[in-house]
Amino acid sequence: MREIDFQKGILDALNTSRGLWWRQNAGLAIIKGKRSGRAFQGAPEGAADIAGIVNGHHVEVEVKVKAPHRPKQKEWEEKVHRAGGIYVLVRYDPKLTRWENIDRALQLVDQALADQGL
Known about the structure:
With about 120 residues, the protein is an alpha+beta fold. The chain has one domain: Trna Endonuclease, Chain: A, domain 1. It is built from three helices and six strands, in the order αβββββαβα. It has helices at about 5-15, 70-80, 100-115, and strands spanning about 20-25, 30, 40, 50-55, 55-65, 85-90. The strands form two sheets. Strands 1-4-5-6 form a four-stranded mixed β-sheet, sandwiched between helices. Strands 2-3 form a two-stranded antiparallel ribbon. Helix 1 (about 5-15) crosses helix 3 (about 100-115). It is globular.
């Protein structure tokens, strides 16, 4: 399973009934080609793959298939929590089907929301 495919499945499922969600690219991108050298800043380094708003609360979902949770991502997770947001780490389990993994991800998000009374 490619991480981008897992992210898309989670994002599509979240957008069916759980607030407003979007894919969040982090870091700096340098555009090559006709407008070479133009730089675009995404979300801060370490920000989660998916961000959303549920009942006025900021929520982020970091999606992992094989890679570890990097130090910059852990730092961002702590910043989100300190600011009153919700951060969920979702790991792909190769023993489960794609749909079981997506369902499990939704359960983790729902639990995090419930923990905050949402």
